């Protein structure tokens, strides 16, 4: 602990919040300062005790926020030294007002990864010709939008819902619709970040969807599962890593 006290800490500035989930607010405030550059890559966060005092919360709240920041690859813990900023998301994330929605989006994404990868596997195994056409229709709409330099939230949601429907299990579709509804506002933010970023981001998103579609078309169940998992992991990286903008 003495090693931590001897090191200079990054200038973290926090203000108490009123939302029920304080760890989300703490996560969002630290994230905003990482995105803005106030907390630079390689700088050290204050010790947990100091963050507790600055924010007026308990250690479990701080630990929950820091744990999720680590899971998202934004910070890194070093034994005996403290917690350091590892990477920065694209600054444009804050331009579209998405900062306070990031914690919810990433929690939902964590749920989506196992659920939607299994949905893609089942869709490849069970889909009917009519269900496949709906997936293809959503994908073609995304292709038209991509040619215009954009990937709106609606065809993306339609693509994922059509895959859920193709499982033949209505619970997958109900869950998918619920998920799409809960992150609809952030989908718009993510769409704007993609649209205003390098052209390769749009190409990459479309390519990932194409891989999922082709696996479902050819009934390659394991390929469909892996393609969906890869797509959702890349979605997380596009939100949390500004190197994706280069």
What attributes characterize this protein structure?
12 helices, 246 residues, mainly alpha, 68% helix
Low-confidence stretches: none
The biggest beta sheet reads: 2 strands, antiparallel
What is the residue-mean pLDDT, rounded to a whole number? 84
> Helicity, in percent?
55-70%
Number of helices: 12
Q: Structural class of the helix and strand makeup? A: mainly alpha
As a whole number of angstroms, the C-alpha radius of gyration is 20 Å
Query: End-to-end span in angstroms?
Result: 38 Å
Number of separate strands: 2
The helix/strand series, from N terminus to C terminus, equals HHHHEEHHHHHHHH
Strand order of the largest sheet: 1-2
Q: Hey, roughly how much beta strand do the residues contain?
A: under 5%
Q: Can you tell me the overall shape? A: elongated
Fold and architecture overview:
The protein has 246 residues and is mostly helical. 68% of the residues lie in helices and 3% in strands. The chain has 12 helices and 2 strands, in the order ααααββαααααααα. The protein has helices at residues 2-6, 22-36, 48-55, 59-71, 92-95, 102-126, 129-147, 153-165, 170-182, 184-196, 199-217, 221-240, and strands spanning 75-78, 82-85. It has a two-stranded antiparallel ribbon. The longest helix has 25 residues, at 102-126. The radius of gyration is 20 Å and the shape is elongated. The two termini are 38 Å apart. The relative contact order is 0.13. The mean pLDDT is 84.
Sequence-ordered SSE layout with sheet pairings:
Layout: H1 2-6, H2 22-36, H3 48-55, H4 59-71, E1 75-78, E2 82-85, H5 92-95, H6 102-126, H7 129-147, H8 153-165, H9 170-182, H10 184-196, H11 199-217, H12 221-240
Antiparallel strand pairs: 1-2
């Amino acid at each position: 602990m003495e090693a931590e006290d001897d090191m200079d800490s990054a200038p973290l500035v926090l203000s108490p919040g009123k939302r029920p989930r304080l760890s989300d607010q703490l996560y969002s405030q630290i994230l905003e300062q990482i995105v803005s550059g106030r907390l630079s890559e390689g700088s050290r966060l204050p010790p947990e005790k100091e963050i507790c005092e600055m924010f007026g919360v308990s250690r479990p709240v701080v630990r929950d926020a820091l744990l999720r920041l680590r899971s998202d690859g934004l910070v890194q813990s070093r034994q005996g030294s403290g917690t350091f900023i590892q990477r920065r998301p694209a600054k444009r994330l804050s331009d579209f007002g998405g900062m306070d929605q990031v914690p919810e989006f990433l929690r939902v994404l964590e749920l989506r990864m196992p659920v939607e990868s299994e949905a893609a596997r089942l869709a490849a195994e069970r889909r009917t010709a009519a269900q496949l056409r709906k997936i293809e229709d959503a994908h073609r709409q995304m292709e038209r939008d991509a040619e215009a330099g954009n990937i709106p939230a609606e065809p993306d949601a339609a693509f994922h819902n059509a895959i859920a429907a193709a499982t033949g299990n209505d619970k997958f579709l109900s869950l998918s619709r619920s998920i799409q509804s809960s992150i609809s506002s952030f989908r718009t933010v993510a769409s704007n970040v993609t649209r205003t970023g390098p052209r390769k981001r749009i190409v990459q998103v479309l390519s990932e969807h194409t891989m999922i579609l082709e696996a479902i078309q050819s009934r390659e169940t394991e390929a469909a599962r892996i393609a969906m998992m890869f797509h959702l992991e890349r979605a997380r990286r596009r939100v949390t890593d500004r190197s994706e903008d280069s």
